[in-house]
Amino acid sequence: MPSSDGALLEASDLHRIYGAARVLRGVYLRLTPGDAVAVVGPNGAGKTTLLRILAGLVRPTAGEVRILGRRLERDDPGARRPIGFLPHQSMLYDDLTIRENLVFVARLFGLANPAASVRRALEELELTHRAGDRPRSLSRGLLQRAALARALLHDPRILLLDEPFTALDAAGADRLRSMLASRLAGGAALVLVTHQLSEAWDLATRVGVLANGRWALEVLREGALVDFAPRWEAALHG
Question: Is residue 54 exposed (0-12), middle (13-18) or buried (19+ Cβ within 10 Å)?
């Protein structure tokens, strides 16, 4: 269940410092069911660091994240259970088959019927015919689909996806957009980092432009992408 005010995720005044580098500078974010925030920005803007903090993998230097009203801590796996996280790496073990990787994750999350959950995930990502293969044998596009199956396996309420369309062909990208739209309609929320805003424009309810570790722009997604582009450029160079 979400928190009493309806929020699935609340991030308050997030800062992250690595040595002399201030990677995040006072970032706020709030997600309610159906929210989809597309995050864009130049390299080094803090996009991946933001996702890793929201996923509970990196501790903020200051500020906090709450998941369904519960403060997110690295040593509290229960707080992270509602999160599905797709990083740049696949997070799949090379010595296990795709099916074995997914069964391992299903058991890690304590799913009631791991075999059924894995079967659904393989079918949804059209990987059933490659379930017995190991990650190292897959093409980059198939590996991305397997990583998505891992991230979505436990039906998370909060999806944190870093460049999810990487290496997907047009049909695969359309299938992923349909999957994500279905989950949003069912009450999930999404933060999607991308270098190609066109990939996520129709999914997004809001767009955030991150620059120098803070929101340069964070607005409702309205109209066409071509009309938003000047605002994006102005935010980056204003």
Answer: buried
d(CA 23, CA 212): 7
pLDDT score at 6: 87
Write down the pLDDT at residue 54: 97
Q: Tokens representing 184? A: 């949003």
Cα dihedral 24, 193, 12, 59, rounded to 10, equals -60
Across the strands, what pairs with 85?
A: 160
- CA torsion sign for 46, 52, 56, 58 is negative
Residue ranges of the chain with per-residue pLDDT less than 70: 1-4, 238
Residue 40: both structure tokens together? 């864009």
CA distance 163 to 200: 10
Model pLDDT for residues 45-79, shown as the tens digit of each residue: 999 999 999 999 999 999 999 999 999 987 788 88
Strand residues in 151-235 grouped as ranges (E)? 158-162, 189-193, 206-211, 214-220
Q: What is the DSSP letter of 201?
A: T
Cβ atoms of residues 182 and 190 within 8 Å: no
Q: What is the pLDDT of residue 4?
A: 45
pLDDT of amino acid 1: 46
For residue 175, give every residue at least 6 positions away whose Cβ sits within 8 Å of its Cβ, in sequence order, or none.
Answer: 125, 126
Q: How far apart are CA 121 and CA 113, in angstroms?
A: 13
Enter the DSSP assignment of 164: T
- The H or E element spanning position 141 is helix 140-152
Q: Three-state SS for 39?
A: strand
